[in-house]
Amino acid sequence: MEISAAEWTVAGRRVSAAAGSVVGSRYRENYDVLHLDPDRPLAVVADGMGDGPGSRAAGRTAVGTFVRGSALTPYPGGLRSAIAEVQRDVRAAGRGLPGLTGCTLTAFVADPADGSAWLAQLGDSRAYRLRDGLLELLTVDHTVAWLGLLNGWYPADSRQAHADRYRLTRYAGHPGEPEADLLNVSLRPGDVLLLCTDGIADQVAFHRIGEVLTAAPAAAAESLLADTLPVGADNATAVVMRVS
Question: What is the domain partition of the chain in residue ranges?
Answer without folding.
Answer: 4-243
